[in-house]
Amino acid sequence: MKTALKYSFICLALLTLNAEAQVPGLANCTRSANLLACIDGNGNAYSVNTVGSTIYLRGFEKAGNRYWAQTNSRYGQLTFFTGIASDGEAWVGYNRRVGWTTINRFSSSGGSSAKFTCSRITGC
Fold it and tell me: What DSSP state is assigned to residue 19?
């Protein structure tokens, strides 16, 4: 779950890239108006599709050999997300922006849970 969550955060961060952008060490991505598709150096693939204030994430995690999907719904500074993987694991959580800081919390059916804060200055 933590790997899938990491890729979903990376995908959201990559939304600001230009079409066919390449970020050394992260991923090779192609972007259209609403869709961002990426493949990283480890063989993981993922895509981000935006429809209004909803973001749909889909991906393949090479290490776990599983597919996953996540839906994020944004309400102002608060984003709720739910996801499921092909092995049956499900997760829920939220992100809340406060200035330059993001407060993140999630839990999964696999027993993982975490609360962490990320800052544009200090990272996560």
Answer: T
